[in-house]
Amino acid sequence: MLEALHGIIAELAAGHALETSLASTLDALRIVLGANEAGIWLGASSAMVRAWGAGPAQISAAELCAIMAGETTKPSGLVAAPIGSADRRVGVLAVTVMRPLEPEEVLLVTAVSHLIGPALLHAERSRRLEVEVEVRTAEIDREHRFTDTIIDSLPVGLYVIDRDYRIQAWNRKRETGMEGVSREEALGRTIFEILHRQPADMLRREFDEVFTLGRIQEYHTQSVATGELRTYRITKAPMRLGGSDVTHVITIGEDVTEWKEAQTRFAHAEKLAAIGQLAAGVMHEINNPLATIAAIAESLEFKLSDAQKAGAVISSDVHEYLHIIDNEVARCKQIVDGLLDFSRPKQQLRERVDLNEVVDRTLQLLEHHVRFKRLTVTCELAPNLRKVPKASGEQLVQVFMALLLNAMDAMADRRGAITIRTRPGPSASEGVIAEVIDRGHGIPQTELSKIFEPFYTTKDPGKGTGLGLSICYGIIQEHGGRIEVESVVGQGTTFRALLPAVEAA
Ligand SMILES: Nc1ncnc2c1ncn2[C@@H]1O[C@H](COP(=O)(O)OP(=O)(O)OP(=O)(O)O)[C@@H](O)[C@H]1O
Ligand SMILES: [Mg+2]
Question: Is the pTM of this model over 0.85?
């Protein structure tokens, strides 16, 4: 008997897994007492669950509760004792013995229940802790996943480095593209190993600046990593983890190519508008003296013929000079009118205009032009093109006329080909697109931003005023559209007018 007790104590103290200890404790009890069944119930007062052993079938829930509460009810054929201390009971140990028990045998059961108590209480506490840890871990996991998903969903490249320049975060966007690096590869490595194409000393300087100054740094950079030239806005932001010192630097790279282009377009439009206003003012000033010169030339002409009638001999040169004055004044007036066209508020645009018709009308007007006749003109006009709302057909003809004349000039020394193409655009605000494509001498990249400025011309003096494109620009803008140009020197130029379209019927 005592040996059995020793065995039980040894089992419990040996630090075996609780499961095996309790199972062998019950076995030992059954053997020592010659019992049929032995079992342990666990639970609260309202619900008891048998946790170990096979034991006693005949015990009721109410009896178990009473035993656990420390009441001395003893169902017949049973020895039972509460498990746990008086202030915290966790279960019941019960053994079925079909004979009267010796007092020491009852004592043994009670002693065993006392021995099991702390182990079970401890196990219960550990279990509660375990559950709590599991819940907290799941919560933290969820939080991590949430922030990871946010960072991965951002349409910007993002990474974080620590004080040793080691990468601690690397988002999905940085994994994609031609220079993409997988997260597994990047995490833990230094930024210099991963961004090995960039000069390490420059990178280090940029990061050190944020580490020491603790301020956000922002700059633009260009890259051809995607196969085309793109502009990126790089932002480096300090991060302070649990203190006032900068512990990490967050770098965000955002593709701002379209934004930058829009900015340039906007700046260009503003500049042109300013030039237009300035020119309009100047032109008004010039109009008056021009009118005076024209009137005086005319009255001189009259005076001369009167003098001639009166018998005076006048050199033919004088008539010639007056004729030149007249012609030159007319030319100035043409320029002034052209420029005023570009800058003054235009008449109301009312009609719905079919761009294909505009192209046809322009070609009819050019039909008899000697140089134009030598060109091969290909028309690719999209059928069922939506109309341009609130437009002026006259003005749009003027646009195509200017574009076609320029195309013709660009191919002056060759038998060139021009293609005029119309097609539907991607959105309502750019619903119709017209292109004039030539195979002429092209425009150098450095000049592209200037060609829409009034008076920009590369043509010989007297051949071009440099107003054609600036007027086109003004007209297209007034129609709510925009004009684009692409050109390769020696290969040709494409002018593209993008105009709004009426809603689809
Ligand atoms: N299709 C083209 N191919 C090559 N260069 C072009 C083309 N269109 C325009 N250019 C360039 O842009 C300049 C400005 O064109 P713009 O039509 O404004 O003036 P212009 O043709 O010189 O004079 P005008 O006022 O008589 O039209 C041209 O002088 C030429 O250098
Ligand atoms: Mg022109």
Answer: no
Position 9 scores a pLDDT of: 53
Asked if CATH classification 3.30.565.10 holds for the domain at 351-499, the reply, yes or no, is yes
Q: Is 225 helix (H, G, I), strand (E, B) or coil?
A: coil
Ligand 1, closest atom to CA 441? 4
* Ligand 1 pocket mutation, candidates 341, 398, 457, criterion most atoms within 8 A of CB: 457
* Substitution candidate for ligand 1 out of 403, 451, 467 with most atoms within 8 A of CB: 451
- CATH topology identical between 2-129 and 155-255: yes
Would the pLDDT of 308 be above 50? yes
Of 323, 325, 327, 305, nearest to 314 (Cα)? Answer: 305
pLDDT mean across residues, the chain: 85
Q: Which three-class secondary structure string do you get for 357-415?
A: HHHHHHHHHHCCCHHHHCCEEEEEECCCCCCEEEECHHHHHHHHHHHHHHHHHHCCCCC
At the second CATH level, the architecture of 2-129 is: 2-Layer Sandwich (3.30)
Residue 396 tokens read as 């749009």
Mutate to test the pocket of ligand 1, among 372, 400, 406, 483 (most ligand atoms within 8 A of CB): 406
Higher pLDDT pick, 117 / 304: 304
Q: What is the mean pLDDT of residues 244-249?
A: 94
pLDDT tens digits for range 413-461: 767 899 999 999 998 899 999 999 999 999 999 999 899 988 899 998 8
pLDDT bracket for residue 1 (50, 70, 90): very low
8 A C-beta contact, residue 75 and residue 45: no
In 3D space, the residue among 472, 386, 390, 389 whose CA is nearest the CA of residue 433 turns out to be: 386
Instruction: Tell me which ligand sits closest to the C-alpha of residue 405.
Output: 2
Contact 444, 499 (CB under 8 A): no
Residues with CB under 6 A from ligand 1: 402, 406-407, 410, 438, 440-443, 451, 456-459, 464-470, 493
Annotation: CATH topology of 155-255: Beta-Lactamase (3.30.450)
Mean pLDDT of 143-170: 93
Indicate which residue's Cα is closest to atom 13 of ligand 1.
457
Q: Where are the domains of the chain?
A: 2-129, 155-255, 260-343, 351-499
Average pLDDT of the residues in 59-85:
76
Q: What is the pLDDT of residue 8?
A: 54
- Which ligand 1 atom lies nearest to the CA of residue 407? 1
Q: Are 472 and 362 in contact (CB under 8 A)?
A: no
**Mean predicted confidence (pLDDT) in 388-406:** 90
